[in-house]
Design brief:
Blueprint lengths: L1 H23 L4 E8 L5 H18 L3 E8 L8 E8 L2 H13 L1 H10 L11 E7 L15 E9 L4 H18 L3 E8 L5 E8 L2 H12 L2 H10 L6 E11 L7
């Protein structure tokens, strides 16, 4: 009987170790958030983030990475796009609850909206996990850069083929053309989707890089090889973004 109890005790201990190891191994989760403001309120939103919100995020354990605005069109006057990260999904829930319940945040929110509501609608939020080939290069450059936030939607079941293509050489071909690979993610709740960020010196460099990439024979061969079993990408969304003055990464 003692041997049986010892066996159960050992089994329980092993299960606990496995559970703890799994918890420790939980991947850092990133959050892509987009805020749309009411007309004329974007500067109010910037001031709130610059003077208060980012610090309050850090207080709750969130990590600020990059804050952008679109470069042109209507969205340039009413949109803020940013990426923050959390230790894991559970930490994200805890951090947001702590932030929203924080008396300091409630005071800041009330004072910042004395002259009218800032946001036109609820923020859009996408939780993402980094791919195994993502550089996670959130270091700032000496000079502000232009960024592309690109979202690729694949045909059903073709995301692994897209990831393999990037893994096999597409990132290197981007670098060959002068692009900087910043980060690559798969959204937690959006199947068949890759979201990634690349940076360029400026608009002219961006155009030159993509022209060179499209005409590169090595890329053409890689594309042909990867699509032998059928089309991979069925939709591409692209945002051109510039960092705001308070963004940690520029």
């Amino acid at each position: 009987m003692r041997a049986i109890h010892q066996s159960f005790g050992l089994a329980s201990l092993l299960l606990a170790v496995v559970f703890i190891s799994s918890a420790d191994a939980q991947q850092r989760v990133y959050e892509l958030r987009t805020y749309t403001t009411n007309e004329g309120k974007l500067e109010n939103l910037h001031a709130r983030f610059r003077d208060h919100t980012m610090e309050l995020f850090e207080k709750q354990g969130m990590q600020n990475h990059v804050y952008w605005v679109p470069t042109d069109g209507e969205r340039a006057d009413n949109t803020l796009v940013y990426i923050i990260s959390h230790e894991n999904e559970e930490a994200a829930k805890k951090s947001w609850k702590g932030f929203l319940d924080d008396p300091e945040w409630k005071k800041v929110a009330a004072e910042s909206e004395k002259d009218g509501k800032i946001l036109a609608k609820r923020p859009d939020a996408i939780y993402m996990e980094p791919t195994d080939f993502s550089p996670q290069d959130f270091e700032s450059a000496e000079q502000p850069r232009l960024f592309e936030l690109r979202t690729y939607t694949t045909a059903e079941g073709r995301l692994p083929a897209l990831l393999q293509r990037f893994r096999d050489g597409e990132l290197k071909l981007f670098e060959k053309q002068g692009m900087t690979n910043v980060a690559y993610f798969t959204p937690v709740e959006m199947p068949n989707t890759l979201i990634y960020v690349v940076a360029h010196k400026d608009e002219a460099a961006m155009k030159k890089a993509w022209d060179g990439f499209r005409n590169d024979q090595e890329w053409q061969q890689l594309w042909e090889q990867s699509t032998k079993d059928g089309k991979i990408v069925i939709k591409v969304d692209r945002q051109i973004l510039r960092p705001v003055d308070y963004s940690p990464m520029k």
